[in-house]
Amino acid sequence: MPVFVDKAKIFIQSGKGGDGHISFRREKFVNNGGPDGGDGGKGGDVIFKVDEGINTLADFHYGGKYKAENGQDGNKRRCHGKNGSDLIIKVPEGTVIKEAASGQVIADMSGDNKEAVILKGGRGGNGNMHYATSTMQAPKYAQPGQPAIELEVLLELKVIADVGLVGFPNVGKSTFLSKVSNAKPKIANYHFTTLSPMLGVVDLKDARGFVVADIPGLIEGASEGAGLGHEFLRHIERTRVMIHVVDAASTEGRDPFEDIEAINNELKTYNADITQKPQVIAANKIDMLPDGENSEVIQKIRDKYEPLGVKVFATSTLTGQGIQELLYYISKVLSEINEKPVIFEQEFFPETMAKQADEAFTVEYDEAEKEYVVEGPKIEKMLGYTNLESEKGFAFFQKFMADNGILDELEKLHIQEGDTVRMYGFSFEYYRNADTVPGNFVEDEEE
Questions:
Q1: What's the pLDDT tens digit per position in 263-277?
Q2: What angle do CA 434, 436, 442 make, to 5 degrees?
Q3: pLDDT digits (tens, 9 = 90+) for 36-63
Q4: Residues 6 or more apart from 116 whose CB is under 8 A from it?
């Protein structure tokens, strides 16, 4: 039997875009062959997809790194590099994908969201065939492919059910589920029989059916990590109504009032919003009480909780007494709520990571070469589409450096007018207020 795993942490990485190629036509009967470097291929995406045949995150239990394929570099004769293959990661429905460090939601694989691109592959770089102009007929540079994005994500499986059964261990929740639905949980008279959430579909004649989840028994301190129950509290978040099953007969010596309060406190500590959901109390095991549903303890439970808007049903999962009335009441409540199942909204956007990386740049002084060196993906991109040998192009280049703070960074390093600045294949002398193309602006020789 596969192990039920509902939480896992993995690394995912998109594919890097292939680099553009630098080459020139060198054919015997072709005069003045121009640049023919091809474009790099796009890197593969990381895609999460719901698989209806999976109900656990066991495949990710030991973590690991999941990497899409890189795009291939461009080649000569305008050959385009092959795009990298996407990586498809299959998960069960109800999986919430979060950024591991912040815990913010990236995607909720529930409802209509059956497939989601979590990380996009890097764009392939342009080959040097794109940069030929009337004044620059032999460009010796090409655009690099966009880098891969790596992200650590937390996968959490939150079962999708209309109704959640909560309560202490051994109060009859598993038996209740087996009586009202098609679920077949293992049932025995000892604590923590249920080691994973069980789902069952309730069908009612002339009324709306619904899905019930038996949440493993909670104990005091569950929200802080005690017992087994804390591992499954997350599954209650999606439910719209809760049935609080309590042992009204105190067959194990516990006080039913203390049990109800203890469980509600655990739910509130874990997530206060949960306690705002409609709740119904199933005062169970009345077959063990001398007066059955007319027992004094049942009346006391009703007197305390029904004024608070919590309906109380006297039930026996052994005889079936009170079960049908409870189910039809739940169906009525769900119809009145008429809300869509809980879907967690996106809070973290991985594409911002690519944008930040694209905008980064460094400004350093090369002591050996006596030059200031400016590097960064955004600068490479700018150089790829700007003709720096034209007056208009160089004016744009000056404005770009000013707007992006590059000139300020150079001055922080005490650059002087006339000092050399190097940027990806180009060198020029620095003049803060230059408004014309400097005569010594040169394309570096190919190494």
A1: 888 888 877 777 788
A2: 95
A3: 889 999 999 999 999 988 877 888 878 8
A4: 47, 48, 97, 107, 109
Is residue 40 within 8 Å of residue 15, measured between CB atoms?
A: no
- Token look-up 């589920």 returns 177
279-284 and 210-214 as β-strands: parallel, antiparallel, unpaired? Answer: unpaired
Structure tokens at 447: 């190494």
Per-residue pLDDT band for 118 (boundaries 50, 70, 90) equals very high
DSSP letters, 51-91, are -TT----GGGTT--EEEPPPPPPPBTTTBPPPPPPPEEEEE
| 440 secondary structure, DSSP code | T
Give the span between the Cα atoms of 243 and 211, in whole angstroms.
12
Q: What is the pLDDT of residue 442?
A: 44
- Beta strand segments in 184-240, E: 198-202, 210-214
Summarised one tens digit per residue, pLDDT across range 193-204 is: 445 567 777 888
From 122-136, 140-154, 283-297, the region with the lowest mean pLDDT: 122-136
Helix/strand/coil for 256: helix
The structure tokens 């990236």 sit at: 106
Closest CA to 222 of 266, 255, 281: 266
CA–centroid distance for 173 within its chain:
32
Ordered DSSP codes for 315-372? --TTT-TTHHHHHHHHHHHHHHH-PPPP-PPP---THHHHHHHHH--EEEEETTTTEE
Instruction: Spell 105-127 as b/e; 16+ CB within 10 A means b.
Output: bbbbbbeeeeebebbbbbbbbbb
Return the structure tokens found at 342.
Answer: 């809980």
Specify the amino acid at residue 115: E
Q: Are the CB atoms for 67 and 13 separated by under 8 Å?
A: yes
Contact 65, 119 (CB under 8 A): no
Cα–Cα distance between 234 and 243 in angstroms, integer?
16
**Nearest-10 crossing angle of helices 173-180, 323-337:** 80
- Dump the DSSP string for 104-149: -EEEEE-TT--EEEEEPPPPPPPPGGGG--SS-SS----PPPPPP-
Residues facing 49 on adjacent strands: 90, 115
